[in-house]
Amino acid sequence: MMQMVVLLTLAGLICSCDDRDTAEHNVKNDGDKPALSISTIEELDETSVFHFAIISDNKGIATEDTDMQRCDAWIRNSAEFVLGLGDHLVSDPDPFLSFIQNDSYWRTNFYPNIADGENQYFSGSQAKWGTGGKMFDYVDDFWGRPNVRGQGNGVDYYAFFEVSGFTVHVISLHYSDSYDGSKGGRSGLIEESRVFMHDTLLGIDKGPKDIIVVLAHSTGGDFVKSAGLSRERRDLLFQKADLLCSATTHVFQRFDEYDSQYINGALSINTGSVGNTGSTSGYVELHVLDDPPRLVVQYMNLEQDIRKLQIGPITKTKAKNPTDPVIKQIGGRSYQFDWNDINAVPPASRL
Predict the structure, then answer these.
(1) Given Cys at both, which of 94, 110, 229, 254 links 234, Cβ 3.0 to 4.6 Å?
(2) Residue 98: in which H helix or E strand, if any?
(3) CA distance 171 to 200
């Protein structure tokens, strides 16, 4: 599925130095596993089973832009696949649309999400629900891909990726932060999308190596708050999924207010923005580790010349609580960690 293409550009050059220059070297471990120290992003790549990426809100920019040039180089060199989270397009002419149509890696490995930016590009209005679905015509036979099942409305879909004994299940929902109400209700996440999410979650027979990711663009940065979900549907979402991803605010952020109610529930984040941001430009990488199965979730800073581990919180941010890299146990807790020992699990009292 992945094409290994080496780009010897400044954006893609790899640094062999220790990424943890500012980290504290106080290795601790809970005793269950030997300490495992990670010094560079390349070490993490080698330690993980595989990894994938999520990008959002690039708003038409492609590789003529430095941030997108780095994003492209870093992702195609190692990521198994790329998930989109909307607002990839703005207005004609759109360099990103031409880029994904003509680049073999993105044309086959990119899974877009449709938001208001896509609606605007194809219909002239962000509020015209679902019109952005034409974007799928610009990647290879999207609805004919054997790992994709559409809802039938041309925008919502379920996709799965089987890699090295793991299965990543993706539920991608159309959520426009501008909405004309033509489909009923007050939320950009309409009832047929909520039903599709609910039924798809129920239909996944989740095991220890099944990773469930739900994508929806949002209105205010956290789609859960404004999606109009019933208590039953919200409980199912947090109890069954592992990762909930929102966008639109261009700020990488963890929404930890759900952790006390759903102790082993889904990790909820905003995936930031490639360019077009008052905060740090970047995208999310997710490394899958085994024994035990877990995700390392971090923000790749595109304002740096080289791809590096995220050390500490993203400091250039509009988020009230800047977000550190996080480990999400599959079916278990989410917690901050120390790169000097990624096997160490903090006691519940420190979460």
Answers:
(1) 229
(2) helix 95-102
(3) 8
**Rounded Cα gap, residues 177 and 188, in angstroms:** 6
**Distance from chain centroid for Cα 234:** 20
pLDDT digits (tens, 9 = 90+) for 277-306: 778 999 999 999 999 999 999 999 999 999
Residue 63 has pLDDT above 90, yes or no: yes
d(CA 185, CA 181): 6
Contact in structure between 274 and 74 (CB atoms under 8 Å): no
Q: Is the pLDDT of residue 20 over 70?
A: no
Residue 288 near residue 327, CB atoms below 8 Å: no
Q: What is the C-alpha to C-alpha distance for residues 248 and 85, in angstroms, rounded to an integer?
A: 9
Q: Does position 3 have pLDDT exceeding 50, yes or no?
A: no
**Residue 206: which pLDDT band, with cuts at 50, 70 and 90?**
very high
The CA distance from 100 to 112, in Å, is 10
From the CB of residue 133, how many other CB atoms can be counted at a distance below 10 Å? 22
Predicted TM-score (pTM) of this structure: 0.90
Residue in this structure with the two tokens 């390349």, named with its chain if needed: 42
Average pLDDT over residues 52-69: 95
Burial 154-185 (b: 16+ CB within 10 A, else e): bbbbbbbbebeebbbbbbbbbbbbbbeeeeee
Q: What does the H/E/C string look like for 261-285?
A: CCCCCCEEEEECCCCCCCCCCEEEE
Q: CB of 224 within 8 A of CB of 258?
A: yes
Would you call 110 exposed, middle or buried from its count of C-beta atoms within 10 A (0-12, 13-18, 19+)? buried
In sequence order, the 6+-apart residues with CB closer than 8 A to the CB of 215 are 54, 83, 85, 113, 170, 171, 172, 173, 245
Q: Which domains does the chain have, with CATH numbers?
A: 50-346 (3.60.21.10)
Segment holding 41, helix H or strand E: helix 41-47
